[in-house]
Design goal:
The structure holds 2 protein chains of 2 kinds. The two termini of chain A are 17 Å apart. In chain A, helix 7 packs across helix 8 and helix 8 packs across helix 10. Chain A is globular. The longest helix of chain A has 39 residues. Chain A is 76% helix and 0% strand. Chain A has a domain of 225 residues: MetI-like (MetI-like fold). The longest helix of chain B is centred in the C-terminal third of the chain and has 40 residues. Chain B is mostly helical. Chain B is built from 11 helices and no strands. In chain B, helix 5 packs across helix 6. The mean pLDDT of chain B is 88. The chains are: A mainly alpha, B mainly alpha. At the A-B interface, helix 1, helix 6, helix 7, helix 10 and helix 11 of A face helix 5, helix 8 and helix 10 of B.
Chain lengths: 327, 304
Amino acid sequence: MKTLQFILKKLTGALITIVAIAIANFAIFRIAPGDPIRMMFKDPRVSTEQLQAMRVKFGLDKSIGGQFIDYVKQLLHGNLGFSFWQKRPVADVIGDRIGQTLILVVTALVIATTLGIILGAISGWRNGSKTDRTILSLSLVLYSIPTFAMGILLLLVFGFILLLFPLGGITTPASGFTGFMYLKDVLWHMVLPAFSIVLWYVGEYILLTRSSMVEVMDQDYIVTARSKGLRESVILRKHALRNALLPVVTLSGVNFAFAIAGVIEAETVFSWPGIGRLTYDAVMKRDYPLLQGIFLLFAVSVVVANFIVDLIYTRIDPRIKTGAAHE
Amino acid sequence: MSNTKAELSINKKRKQKIRNQKIKDFLYLLIDHKMGKIGVGIIVIFLFVALAAPLLRTVSPHQSGNASEILIPPNSQFILGTDDLGRDVWSQVLYGSRVSLLIGFVSALATVVTGTLVGIIAGFYGGILEEVLMRIVDFFMMLPALPLMIVLAAVLGPNIWNIIFVVTLISWPTTARVVRSQVLSLKERPFVEASRCIGAKNSFLMFGEIFPNVVPILFAEAVIMITEAIYAEAVLSFLGLGDPVRMSWGSMLHFAFDSGTMARAPWWVLPPIVSIILLIIGFSFLGTAVSDILKPGYKEKKGL
């Protein structure tokens, strides 16, 4: 019962946030300078009457309130507007790119989380040792290198100098690869962009797991487990790590939002044809409707990711069932 | 009457003395801390570079060269070579430090001021005011930072003050949250109660009694905010949203990347990358040192 209440509360919060995001998204793009219709038809031969007709067609002659109602109506029908640059619906442009971005993000985050948790657990377990200090300063340095800077460095060293990996894109152009060869080609192209994301996240996950681990190590139940004479590896796996991972799970929702930043930077550097590179192109082309659609997608996916984390939490945190967890 | 005045002035002097001693202790601990030492060293070097840029430069960073001066490797005239318009890379790197530091410091200041005001007011008054303010904070924290910054910077136009505004807008909620949780416990403490009993106004309680106690945490917050602002500026400029008038390290990388000559001109790409990384490392090391020092018991362990 308590669990259901918790889920309902989080669901309401998520829905309210999504509505607020839609309102903010509408408002932000009303500050944009210039006439959107003029930007769409740069040709001076288009007459004022024709422009006015387009304005009526897109509903831009209405009041702000009327425009907002139209915007919400369109949104509910899954219509995100019309891209000036690509001359087709924003939803289609974005839809073509989602798959490529998901492959990259999921691969990078799985590698980063695994590596980060292992290294962070070792570091926190051996708190104060030389291994700990080495891992700690390494992760601080990695965490300080922006993804795009790491990307450019990797591109220069492994792409241009050592010629080990392709310079960009997702497949070898006109290779005609199919099946297994195609998959191999995509993975080969993914190595550098994925690692420029991984190297930043690893730093973050190490720092997170480590500090959580250090906190857990001081708890009474670890002392109890030790005094029972359990083996160190058993204490590490069954007692320490399991509890230390709780905050790491919470933050993976927040990290999803950070992952978006990494994706935009890495995809831009490596011309990876996903949403991140699309963001860069939309900025360069000043294609506001496309940018608006991308922002909506990013913001809503962060809210959804956080909601999913809350759901996972109901399963792993016993305090929710008893109603002890408030926030 | 004059007696109490004299006492007050003695009291003030004593407070001043304690504060000076505290700052001295803090600086000592900072230099004593291994990461703190490295961080401070790096930051001091960049501050020097930023201030002395006009003396250290060879040519103006904006001056384009003629056709024979395009993309030439480092030599005696151009220490770090030239870019695709024949502009001197060394001077651009020198002046780039000004943009990063300016944006870092101003955004951090604006963030800390806004976040502190909201945090103190929300924590002190409580009730509906707190509820509303914290909902706004939660909403901002939920938004994906980089996409929001990109969208706003694109809509508002590329200019250093817009970047500062955008960075502040996405950072203040964190500070507000930290400050509020501090205020919640501070306002129940006896010294605030005592001050209230002798008739102190709310504004004095908030800014005269509570505020001095959050200053150490604000310092730690400010260092983190500087780091994040420098990071954010670099990313936005790299994505082509930098101020075209004030060339930053991020914009240098944007132009190098956009021109497609990156592989042919590593001297153009590496200096800004190394500068960005070093400066961010400097501030994150300083941040780590500051948060270590502020941990309860650290001072005593070091014998102070």
